[in-house]
Amino acid sequence: MKKFDLEDVRYRTHMQKDRLESYKKFFDDPDKLKRLEEQECVICYYNSKFGGAAMTDSNCGLCETKMNFGSTNVDKLCTDCSKMHELCKHCGADINYKKRNKL
C-alpha cells in the first residue's frame, strides 16, 4: 500500500472543496426558474443523473401515459401530471418539499 503523503492531502482537500461547492447549489438554488420550468425538485435538478445507454420506455405513475427516454434514468411522472400536482417529474416529491395530506 502506498504511504499517505502531502500530495494525497492536497488532492483530497481539493476534491472535498469541490464537493462542498457543488452542495451549495442545493441551498442557494441558483437556477431556480429553469429548475421549476423543468419541473424538478432541488435534489433531482442539481444531482448528477446516471443511467444506462439504452432507449427506455416508462409509464407516468399517475395517468399511465407512455414516455420515452434516451437512457435508463427515467422520470416517475409525465410533465402534465407533475405540473398539475406540483410534483417533481423525476422522483415524484412535492416540488417545494411541502408536507401533504392528499395528492
Written overview of the protein:
By secondary structure, this protein is mainly alpha-helical. The chain has one domain. It has four helices and two strands. The protein has helices at 6-28, 32-37, 42-46, 79-85, and strands at 56-59, 66-69. Strands 1-2 form a two-stranded antiparallel sheet. The longest helix is centred in the first third of the chain and has 23 residues, at 6-28. The protein is elongated, with a radius of gyration of 18 Å. It starts with 5 loop residues before the first helix and ends in an 18-residue tail after the last helix. The mean pLDDT is 93.
Number of domains: 1
Structural class: mainly alpha
Strands, total number: 2
- Average pLDDT score: 93
Shape: elongated
Approximately what portion of the residues adopt beta-strand conformation?
5-15%
C-alpha termini separation: 54 Å
What is the H-and-E element order? HHHEEH
**Strand order in the sheet with the most strands:** 1-2
Helix content: 25-40%
* Radius of gyration, in angstroms, nearest whole number: 18 Å
Q: Count of helices?
A: 4
Low confidence ranges:
none
Largest sheet: 2 strands, antiparallel
Précis, in short:
The chain is 40% helix and 8% strand.
Q: What is the topology?
A:
Layout: H1 6-28, H2 32-37, H3 42-46, E1 56-59, E2 66-69, H4 79-85
Antiparallel strand pairs: 1-2
